[in-house]
Amino acid sequence: PRPKIQSCDLNTLVTDFIAMSRPEFKNKQIDIHLRLATESPLTQSDPGQVRQALLNVVRNSMEAMPEGGNIIVETTLEASLCTIVITDDGPGIPQEEIHRVFEPFYSTKSSGTGLGLSLTQQILTDHGGSIQVEVHSPRGTRVSLLLPRLTDGPNEQKSTSETAA
């Protein structure tokens, strides 16, 4: 569905997501580490869809670490971007496979559907953002969800009423 755009504080979204997911992390022996940007990263987005994108990436990390491990979720704020970065210390994705992770139905897991990152990429594209996946050395994967920053300047994102006009 089309995003229902509203002002969204990524620090709040991430904090709420982690709080709701803590029991699942504990059951799967995942230690979650949260690092929030000092200034709230504000964006115009659909919080439900951004939460779904975050869930898809975190779920991939958890599934890649069946014996447990660490996941770091951090928010960053730059001049024109708000970013949620998810880093895990799982086995990682082979460098030669990274270019395929957004292909529908492609998965490095035997039980995966291969739709999570494809859907996540579509969500971010619909929000004017993007996703980056890279090998995190020495182990693991680093996924960045990039969204346009809500600013007060001339490049301010259009509000819902402006977009509908």
Summarize the structure.
This protein is α+β, with helices and mostly antiparallel strands and 165 residues long.
How is the main sheet built?
A: 5 strands, mixed
**What structural class do helix, strand and pairing data support?**
alpha+beta
Query: Average pLDDT across residues?
Result: 85
Subunit arrangement of the protein:
single chain
The poorly predicted ranges are 153-165
Secondary structure: number of strands: 7
Beta-strand portion reads 25-35%
Shape: globular
- Indicate the percent of residues in helices: 25-40%
Biggest sheet strand line-up: 2-4-5-7-6
- If helices are DSSP runs of H or I spanning 4 or more residues, what is the number of helices? 4
* Through-space gap between termini: 19 Å
The value of Rg in angstroms is 16 Å
H/E element string? EHEEHEEHEEH
Structure description:
- The protein is an alpha+beta fold and 165 residues long.
- Helices cover 32% and strands 27% of the residues.
- It contains 4 helices and 7 strands.
- It is globular, with a radius of gyration of 16 Å.
- The model is unreliable at 153-165 (pLDDT under 50).
